[in-house]
Design goal:
With 175 residues, the protein is of the alpha+beta class. It has helices at residues 18-31, 44-52, 105-116, 134-142, and strands at residues 8-12, 54-55, 60-67, 70-79, 89-96, 124-130, 146-157, 160-170. Strands 1, 2, 3, 4, 5, 6, 7 and 8 form an eight-stranded mixed β-sheet that branches. The chain binds coenzyme A (COA).
Length: 175
């Protein structure tokens, strides 16, 4: 597949993207060893992301990157994992199809996401990456994320226990 990225369009996911986003998750999780998650699971959170795309009141968004009609990546932000007490914390995930990596698409998605973050009611962003996932760590650090902690041997991938790095960044809060 060619990887011409001259014409990357970033937008909120829409209903007709559903199967393409799920296919992308399946492809990336099956080939990527440095990811915590497995195949798509229809959790209530993911179902809302895919059906609503963005909700300012509840603080979530799913942005997709489209190149020549193909969805080649996405980033999602969800907040309030524990309810109102951490509603100000947006957790970020990002995936780019292998053939389209290292072409700036991940950066473009995160840039757009950061623009939306204040309106989504988040003042802190978090992300978790497997310790050996240097590319992902580099990408988040480029956008101001810092290491907040390490969960040692948090995942078992194949025969190996691997650490998970917790990253976070804080956005200016309104006075
Ligand atoms: C992490 C990921 C989203 C990055 O997307 P991308 O489109 O390749 O990102 P970009 O091209 O915008 O930027 C990649 C950056 O990492 C750098 N990079 C690439 N490989 C690297 C490596 N092995 N070590 C360190 N940095 C690396 C690139 O040089 C670039 O840096 P720069 O912008 O300073 O030049 C993509 O690799 C991916 O989907 N990985 C699998 C899923 C994943 O790990 N998601 C993160 C967990 S939520």
């Amino acid at each position: 597949m060619s990887a011409n990225t001259d014409d990357v369009q970033v937008r909120v996911v829409c209903h007709s993207d559903r199967e393409r986003v799920i296919d992308l998750i399946s492809t990336v999780t099956s080939e990527e060893k440095q990811l915590q998650t497995g195949a798509y699971q229809a959790t209530p959170t993911w179902e809302r992301l895919l059906s609503e795309g963005i909700c300012y009141e509840d603080g979530f968004v799913l942005l997709v990157a489209e190149v020549e009609g193909h969805i080649v990546g996405f980033t999602r932000l969800t907040s309030g994992a524990c309810g109102p007490k951490d509603r100000h914390v947006g957790n970020v995930g990002i995936v780019i199809q292998r053939e389209y990596r290292s072409k700036g698409i991940g950066s473009t998605l995160l840039e757009e996401l950061l623009h939306l973050t204040p309106d989504l009611g988040c003042s802190k962003l978090t992300a978790e990456v497997i310790a050996s996932n240097e590319c992902s760590k580099h990408l988040f650090e480029k956008f101001g994320f810092q290491v907040e902690g390490v969960r040692h041997q948090q995942f078992r991938i194949g025969d190996e226990y691997v650490d998970e790095i917790l990253l976070a960044t804080w956005l200016p809060t309104e006075c």
